[in-house]
Task: structure prediction
Amino acid sequence: MNEGRIGIAVGATMLLTVVAAGIAVPLLSEFHPNELVAIPFRPPSREYFFGTDQLGRDVFTRVFAAVHRDLGVAFLGVSIPLVLGTAIGILLSLATSRVVAALTTSLIDAINALPLLVLAIALIALFGPGLQSIVIVLAMTNWARYARIARTRADVVARMPYIEAARLQGYPRHRILLRHFVPNVSAETLAYALSDVILVIMLISGLSFLSLGAAPPTAEWGVMMSEGRPFVQNAWWMTIFPGLALCWAGIGLSFIAEGLSRRERGAGE
Amino acid sequence: MAMPERSSPDVEQARSRLLKKVTARLARAAAVSFWVMVIAFGLIRLAPGDPVLARLGAEAAPEAIDRLRHALRLDVDPATQFVEYTWGMLHGRLGTSIETQRDVATIIAESLPVTLGIIAVTLAMALVVAVPLALAIATSRRPWVPYLFRATTSVMLAIPAFFTALVGLIVFGLHWQIAPIIGYEPGFPANLRFLWLPALVICTHLVPVLSRVLHASLVQTRGEEFVETGIIRGVSRLRFTWFYLLKPSLAPSIVLLSYMVGVMIGSTVIIETIFSLPGIGRSLVGAVINRDYPLVQGIVLVFGLFVVAVSLAGDLLANWLDPRVGAT
Result:
C-alpha cells in the first residue's frame, strides 16, 4: 500500500520534470534545436550543458525539444489501440456467431504471436519510414493485445450477477454495455496501457534509431542516438544524453505503473 | 501386445482429458500459423499505392515495372497468388530476393543460426542468474529485499535495450576493449566471443522478467501444504529446494520463457544491427530499407512460425511438468 504510493510519487515527479523541461527548455533556450550554434563536437560545458553534435547544434536544447514528440507520439500510439482493442474485445465477448469469434480470436493470437517490433518493421516497409507510419502501424497491430485483455475481462464481467440483474430489469443492451462493460473492462485495459506506454516509447525511439521512424534533422531521441553512434568514441554526449532522457521518462512511467498495480493488489487483499 | 487392464476409470478419464487439451492446443497453433501465413502474404498486398512503383520510383521504365510485377507475381489474381505462395512454402520455396537475386530460404538458413545462437546464449545466461536470484529473494527474511528487487527490476525494464547496447559497446568494446565491436565468426566456441555482450544486453530485460515470475510462483509454492510437510520431515536442503520449492514453481516460468523467445527475437533485430552481427534481424532491417518485399515476407513468416512452435512447445512442457496448468 505504502510502497505503491511511494512508487507513484517518485514516478510522477520524474515524469513531470521531463515534461516541464520539455516545455520550458525550448521556450527559454537561446538556441533553436536545429540551429548551428558552435563548432561541432564541443564537450559538455557551462555554455552547452550537453555539448554540441556533429553539425554544431546544442544537444541540451535538442534533447528537451524532443520530449513533446516522443511522448506525444507514444500517447497517440497507445490510445488508438487502447480504444480499438477494448471495443473489439468487448464485442468479441458478446459475439453470438461462433465462427466470427473463433476467426477473430485466432487473428488476435497470430498478431500477438509475431514480435511487435518485427511486425512493425515489416509494415513500415509498406508505409515508408516516419512517425506517422509508426502510429498507423501501432493502430494496426497493438490493438490485438488490448483486445485479448478486454475479451478475457468482458467474459468475467458477463458472468457477474449485476449483469443478470440489469438484464432482468429490462435495461436496453446498449445501456448495459456502456454502464457496465465499458467501465469495468477499460479499467483493466487502461492499467495495461500504462505499462504499454514504456514499450511504445522504446519502439518509437528504437525504430527511429534504425532509421525507420523519424528522420534527421528532427529532434527525436532515437534519431539523435543514431546520429551520435558513429562518433560514440569521442563524442559520447551525443548518444548518452538523449538515451538518459529516454530512460528517465521510461523509469518514471514504470514506477507509476508498478505503484498503481501494487496499490490495486493491496486494496484487493 | 495386450495391455493388462489395470487403468481405473479415473486414470482413463484423466488421460482423455489430457488428450483433448493437447488436441485443442495443437488446433490453436495450426489456426495461428494459418493467420501468420496470411499476414506474411498480405504484407505486399496491403501496401497503400503500388509497391512496385515505391521500389522502382515513378520514372522507372514500363518494361522494368512489368518485369518486377511479374517477378513478384502481382500480375495474377490474389487467389492464385495465395495458392502459389502456400504451395511454394510447403516445398520450402520462399521466393527470390529482389535486391540480391538470391533465394530467400537460403538467406534465412544462413542468418538464422546467428540469431538462434544469441537466443541460446541469452537463455543460458538468464537462467544461471535468474534462478538463484529468485530463490535467494524468495527465501530471504529481510523485509527490504523484495522492495529493492521490485524497484531495481522496474528500472531495468524501463531502460531500452539499444541504449544498454550502446553503453555496453562504449564500456566493454571501446574503453576496456574486452568485447569485439564488429565482425563475427561462426562455429560454437568461436562465436561466444562475439555473442556474450549482445546476450548480456538482452539479459538486462530477460532476467528481471524471469526472476519476477519465478519469484512470484516460489512465494505461492511456499504457502502450499506440502512444503510444510517437507520442513517437518526434515529433508535435506538441496532436496527441499529442488523438489519442494523449485520444481512445482517452474511451469509458469517455462510458459513465460517460451513467450519471451518471441520478445527476444524482436530485440535481436536492434541488437544485431548495433553489434553488426549477420543474423536474421539485421537482414530484416536491410530488407525493409531496400524494400525487398520477398525477403521481408519470408523473414516475417519464419519468425512467426518459429514463435508459434516455441510457444506450443512451452505450453506442452509446462503442462507435462505441472498438470494443474490449464490449457487456456
Observations:
- Residues 173-209 of chain A form the longest helix (37 residues).
- Chain A touches chain B through 47 residues (CB under 8 Å).
